[in-house]
Amino acid sequence: MSLVRPTDPVPVDKLGRTHFIGLGGAGMSGIARVLLQSGAEVSGSDARDSDTLRELEQMGADVHVGHAAENLGPADTLVISSAIREDNPELVEAQRRGLRILPRAAALGALLLGREGIAVSGTHGKTTTTSMVTVVLQHLGAEPGYVIGGKLVTTGLGADAGIGGPIAVEADESDGSFLMLSPKIAVVTNVEADHLDNYSGLDEIHANFASFVDRVERTLIVGIDDPGARRVAELGRERGKRVLTYGEAPEADYRVSGIRARGFTTEFTLHTADNEPIVGQLAVPGRHNVLNAAAAVAVADELGHDLEIAVEGIADFAGAARRFELKGEGAGVGVYDSYAHHPTEIEADLHATRAALESFGEESPELAGGRVVAVFQPHLYSRTRFFADEFAAALDLADEVVVMEVYAAREDHDPDVTGELITSRIDRDGVWYVPGREAVVRKAAELARPGDIVLTMGAGDVTELGPHIVEALAASAEPGEATPA
């Protein structure tokens, strides 16, 4: 994988019939859904059938399972992702016919043209913050469009065209594709080293964010507690952008204080220069989510909505898929799933889980003593190699740690990089490297006891293990059943 070459977006009404290779993917399907809702002609293909393909077919898309040149039909525009190989027969045919070929991000950028586009970028928190922006604007009656990397719990969808007003999208920095978006408002949550299989280092990442700043048409909303994002704010001011900040820092335009866990909900207070302090509540845990909420409220305020009603609306946010998502409970143990795949994300989720358990114990002494059992699947050999020490330090916050084999994703197998590269750096008991999936399920169920939380983490297929862990826990609690070993 490498940085994509920026391509300027084309207005939706100029795309003509649009064909997607990999139509069933989360990113592609969301854009296709919005185009269909906008009255555009859409076709597409994917290697495997799925419920997503069938939903798009019911909406009017011409859907194909498998890739073949004839799938293009009378297409005018082809949309591809960086995962599409050069020998894909549909791409080859499009090149032969001289069709317009757009990267996925350029197609996403097309949806922002002519609308109040809101793009959320940053190393962490993009999906959650974009989801929160959407929920707050829905509460305010703005009927926004959105394209999100996960699904909103409240709607069960990852994308919707809205009713012609604002549209909120994720701006992905991982491969530089956010440089194909030109939003009116941009949120930058934080800027850290990541995706070092694409970038040479943090300096190149900052250079790309500088180019992103130039594409923002009006307002930058920046998480000022993060040093990298603070640099983006300074750069925005130097380049004449309107810059608003949020965070716990005293100088933040939207300052949060009084963050307090109440089980899996969180209370906070929001301060601005022009308003009395406003007390808010989130239905999800963690300081990082309070900061994401402050960004969402700042977007609503910048769009001219009532700030107090916006804070009220953040309480409607019930989460997004794979963002501290409850998978079930068995034998008195709650099992949750998280997309956390970077050390900073793991640390944030484990701190949030610990705070929730402590608050349970404070309010109900009989619940005191609950522990955190972390099940982590490293994502990418390169990321595991670069951040092995940092992963170990973050996971050390859990009481029990199970590390799986590396999920290779787009990378070739590297026999020198395994999950043991992480566990070998945590020098204490309660840490296991368990490469087999079934063995991981058994180990998690064996370790957990009533009152604990099992948290599966990673960007790969670890998300599939939660229900199996719940089943194993339930089986272990049944009379006559042996505890999984």
TrEMBL record:
The keyword Cytoplasm applies. Residues 120-300 form the Mur ligase central domain. Pathway: Cell wall biogenesis; peptidoglycan biosynthesis. Residues 322-460 form the Mur ligase C-terminal domain. Residues 18-112 form the Mur ligase N-terminal catalytic domain. One of its GO terms (molecular function) is UDP-N-acetylmuramate-L-alanine ligase activity. Its EC number is 6.3.2.8. Pfam families: Mur_ligase, Mur_ligase_C, Mur_ligase_M. Its main location: cytoplasm. Cell wall formation. This is UDP-N-acetylmuramate--L-alanine ligase.
